[in-house]
């Protein structure tokens, strides 16, 4: 045991009226929602990087957090794991996620870094045996070190491609050993700053082959989890190859991977791409590639990815509606890819940020479930498209353009616009919030 969270008891559900800030108001893991325990719906995970590795810097200032486990030794890496699992226990978190660089110190060589990773994976395995939390997904940090400044799989230097392959292989092995339910590829710097020094065709081909190799290796080692890509626009590269769900799907189809790879969708990235969170989820579900989500929010005045904890259940409810409508998670979950504000220094802040985020998601889930169970929105949607249920309408989709056009003169069709009833449906939605 460490003393970082000393005096903080496990968080319990006390209901909406409690005045205890160290209690859940809406998140009750055993509450049944649509026939399933709330914990099993939400599948919460803590992000190792923001909660335990991030020093509190921003583009204009350095470290503000002073954590006792900060440093580049294996002893401190083990202390970090001790603190992490203590926090998982306090929150009752069923899952966590990590990059390799979050859990082990960087070595002077790749071999040393891998030895460090292997050693800490053994330690994490021991922690999992003694605690509730399990690995939702692992991933590799292919963006922080200067070697990846021009990308990983898309780097013009083939030696960097090889180094990225070795790094991903090591992390897939680590994820597999820990029983991870997914493996995520976050593109990081898989993009470009200027066309003046970029071969777009070559970089796209290299990225596609790299992903094919990842899938091939997954099957070789018998990893049963999902391979996920996390779409991200603009940041850190000016043009990212994995810009949004639609872009990723086109990429997967091009390289024959649409049945093998799904997406991990982040709220903040969806907004940066000019979409809503629920749009990206609904599109992924309709394409058959929805996998998991990173839960956070942006500061809409800043215009960049601020990774704040969610605090607005109304904003998240439509996202959970689309998740429920799609049948819920399989191997995925709700990962808090969110970090404290750099002025929030205390251990209590880290706990309360997650408590608030979990309550926000639980409240959003219950709103979404109530509307879905009522059937009102789906009935309205079905009614709007009811005309397509007629034999004549169905025939148009299997016939020719000429046959569809012939209906206009043969039946004297003169379409009259029909209301989309948006405001009525918005009012309906608000009644469930």
UniProtKB/TrEMBL annotation:
Species of the source: Aliigemmobacter aestuarii
Gene name of the encoded protein: xylA
PANTHER family: PTHR48408, XYLOSE ISOMERASE
Signal peptide region: none
Annotated GO biological process: D-xylose metabolic process
Keyword annotations of the record: Carbohydrate metabolism, Cytoplasm, Isomerase, Magnesium, Metal-binding, Xylose metabolism
EC number: 5.3.1.5
GO molecular function, one term: xylose isomerase activity
Protein name per Swiss-Prot or TrEMBL: Xylose isomerase
